[in-house]
Amino acid sequence: MELKEHLDRPTSGWSRGTGPDADVVVSSRVRLARNIANIRFPSRQSPEEATEVLTLAERAVGILGDDWDFYRLAPLTAPDRRVLVEKHLISPQLARQPQAAAVAMSHDERSSLMVNEEDHLRLQVMEPGRNLPQAWQEANAMDDRLEADLEYAFEPDLGYLTACPTNLGTGMRASAMVHLPVLVMSGRVGALLQAVTKIGYAVRGMYGEGTDAVGNLFQVSNQRTLGMSEEEIVAHLDQVLGQVIQAERESRHELRNQSPDHLADRVGRAYGILRGARLLTTAEAMRLISDIRLGIALGMLPEIDYATVNALLVICRSGYLARVAGRELPAAERDVLRARLVREHLQRAEAAAGGR
Amino acid sequence: MELKEHLDRPTSGWSRGTGPDADVVVSSRVRLARNIANIRFPSRQSPEEATEVLTLAERAVGILGDDWDFYRLAPLTAPDRRVLVEKHLISPQLARQPQAAAVAMSHDERSSLMVNEEDHLRLQVMEPGRNLPQAWQEANAMDDRLEADLEYAFEPDLGYLTACPTNLGTGMRASAMVHLPVLVMSGRVGALLQAVTKIGYAVRGMYGEGTDAVGNLFQVSNQRTLGMSEEEIVAHLDQVLGQVIQAERESRHELRNQSPDHLADRVGRAYGILRGARLLTTAEAMRLISDIRLGIALGMLPEIDYATVNALLVICRSGYLARVAGRELPAAERDVLRARLVREHLQRAEAAAGGR
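Predict the joint structure of the above. Result:
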């Protein structure tokens, strides 16, 4: 499959689907850090070693099957690399150092592999909704198949060796993207996330800088990678997710009882503005997208679904816009194009819903 | 025709049509004040005289033909009387003193007659767009037919006698409702309307109190009724209208050249909010309706037309809302119902446009 096809479509396998508890959990992700034995970590490796890693990785991806393709990042334009970041297929760090870097992915983009990021290999599986155990199983199966071809750096007492000691052991990071609009609205999100942090989980805004949660989207992930099995990590994080889901749902229930008209008005206006605006900044678009995701969760917007809003999160972003335009755009032109693409996307979704 | 039918439909003959220069001129109106000879003016008449006027008026309306009906206001609820005001069929003053009052109207509501307002009779013809000469011709024909049955109070040197001396002579008030959103936006409307006032025309906001022009709708009317023929009054006012139209069009042209995206955004958002909101105050609704009327004028909203927005002006108002609800509503409930009726009206208009 041509990389172009991946870059052109704003959806991924995970983002088109709907998983359990999709009213709060957008996606679940498991990432495994792996390094090839006897080659130095990317930050210290020689150009020859970097090339060797690329060669070995490409060969190993070959055995993952016809469903996989391997793409070097060096030939890509900066906006195209950004699109890969916007689709959660590579990290911003990898996009910034494309020379000896590559990404491999399955056709549906649910599984992917970064090469020469902080570690030689970073395997990732993303699933829609609250689906950590399945993401782990798939990542584990993928890992087994790669390990049949590659010799990993592994120590019996330390587990998988990683560039950063925080990844030692399982090399695993499990995370979920959660949408907490009403906890944010009610001001309760701070206390909840503080509690989650205290028991050993990291929480950050999914988009934007620092802890600012653009679009009310947060990522919750495990911190510990050592001294626990992968299954334990996944089970614990899943429990935490259960509590986060409950807290958000209770807040929604309360808000709906207290101000049903204001809630419906907020959702209806957000949809109307996204459908009608001719200028949209990222900040406004993300705020409105959050409102309509909430509307879907509350059954207020039958004409669209989670897949529609998931795609909007990519469509709105500067890399994707630059790709559609064929060039980097100044902010004012981005706002015009963003509004147009959002409008057209919603029109198509409505037409599809009308035809159902 | 039952009065109920008039009260239930938010449209009138004039508001469903499109006349010349409809991009700026919403409607043209000619009103004639007439009194019956040898009966005192309403402010001074006895109950018997009031009844006599009603009886004479009802008989005279009978000869206007099958297309006409005569309705006494006394049995109507206050909200229903307000609907007649909102549809421009009677004045607020008549609605406040319904005891000996009546209204007659043609089925399409383009012609109507108030009985026992400030004068015994007030004939009115409303036409869509810039159409003063036709409104005058129809009012004149209606007047001739009534005069065949009634003896008017008339003095050769003073013309028609009226309760207020400002109406003496022709007893005619010609007016036009004009939509000046961009002159308001650019702050130029003040100077223009001052100039119009200086040459002898009255300008006021069409809705709301005093000179505040809710929805950017203004009424321009003649002040002089004496010493000029009806044709002269109409021709002069029509000239003034031509200048007002030109000024507004030039401002629109300029704005469109300077900020096409912002203009399109403003119109698109207004439409989106009217389509999506679940709570709408009158003030916001009138502001948004002004924006979409401008959008229609600029060809930006092919899914709706002037008839759609004309009906919204009635749908949004408290009398009509109370009629739909079957009772007077508190403000919060009005905002919910207003939003629902506006939304449904636009949906129907879109569906009709889709079917064209």
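The first helix of chain B runs from residue 3 to 8.
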